[in-house]
Amino acid sequence: MRGEGVLSSGLSMAELGLRIRTERRTRGLSIDRLAELSGISRSMVSEVERGTKTPTVLVLDRLATALGTSIARLLDEPAHQAMRVLRHSEQRVLRDPSGWERRVLSPVLEDVEFEFMRTTIGPGVDAGEFAPHAPGSREYLAVERGSLRLTINGRPYELGAGDSAYYPGDCRHAFANDGPADCVYYLAMELGAAGQHDPRTVRYNPHAGQHDPWKEPLDG
C-alpha cells in the first residue's frame, strides 16, 4: 500500500476538493476559519480544495471533523433508496502512504452521520492520532486479525484478534500495529448530534477530551 494516493474507487482529487469547498461555503466558513478549526495550514486547505494536493487520511479526517461531518460524506453522495447494496468495487477506499487502508462499508444517508469501515494496518505501521469528534460521538471497534495498539487520550490498550472496544468519539484516539503481520479491524462511528453542531464554535484541540472513557480497563 505504500506510495499510493489517499483515494481510490474513482473519485478524483478535483471532485473531493469541490465537495470540501461546497461543505465549507454551506457552513459560511472562510478558508482561514476552516484552517483554524482543523489545525491544518491555510495553504494545505487551499491546495486540497483546488485538487492540487493529496491529503493524508489524517488531514482529511481533521477537515471532515472541523466541518461537522465524516470522511464518508465527503467521498460519496447520499443514498436515497430504502435498500442499498454496496458491491466491493463500489466501496470508497482510502490508502495512506504510511502503509494502511480504510474501506468505507456503509452508504451515506440523509441526515445520518454514521460510518462503518474496515481498516488494514501493515506490520510496524502507526496510523497516527485522530482528532476528537463532536461531543456525543461514539465509536465501536472489533479486531478481526492481528494485533492493534489503540490509544485513547494518551493511554494505550493492546487488542488482539476477537477483542472489541467502545470509546467516546470526542476523545483523542490513535491506532498502530506493533505486530509482525497485518492488522484488520472494523470500526463503526456515530457522530454526535447527527453532525448538527456548529463547526464555527469548535476548534481542534489535540488535548481535548482528557477524561478516561473506559469504565473497566482492558489491561486489568
Would you give an account of this structure?
By secondary structure, the chain is of the alpha+beta class. The chain has helices at residues 13-26, 31-38, 42-50, 57-66, 71-75, and strands at 93-96, 100-104, 114-121, 126-130, 138-145, 148-152, 155-159, 164-168, 173-176, 183-190. It has a six-stranded antiparallel beta sheet, with no helix packed on it. A hairpin with a 3-residue loop joins strand 1 and strand 2. The longest helix has 14 residues, at 13-26. The protein is globular. The termini are far apart. Mean pLDDT is 84; it is low at 1-5 and 194-220.
Structural class by SSE content: alpha+beta
Question: H/E series, N to C?
Answer: HHHHHEEEEEEEEEE
* Major sheet characteristics: 6 strands, antiparallel
* Spatial ordering of strands, largest sheet: 1-2-3-10-5-8
In DSSP terms (H or I, runs of 4 or more residues), the helix count works out at 5
Which strand-content bin applies to the residues? 25-35%
Average pLDDT, rounded to a whole number, is 84
How many strand segments? 10
- The rounded Rg comes to 17 Å
Shape: globular
Unreliable residue stretches: 1-5, 194-220
Give the % helix: 10-25%
What separation lies between the terminal Cα atoms?
35 Å
Short description:
By secondary structure, the chain is an alpha+beta fold.
Detail the topology: elements first, then pairings.
Layout (H helix, E strand, L loop, with lengths): L12 H14 L4 H8 L3 H9 L6 H10 L4 H5 L17 E4 L3 E5 L9 E8 L4 E5 L7 E8 L2 E5 L2 E5 L4 E5 L4 E4 L6 E8 L30
Antiparallel strand pairs: 1-2, 2-3, 3-10, 4-9, 5-8, 5-10, 6-7, 6-9
Helix pairs in contact: 1-3, 2-3, 2-4
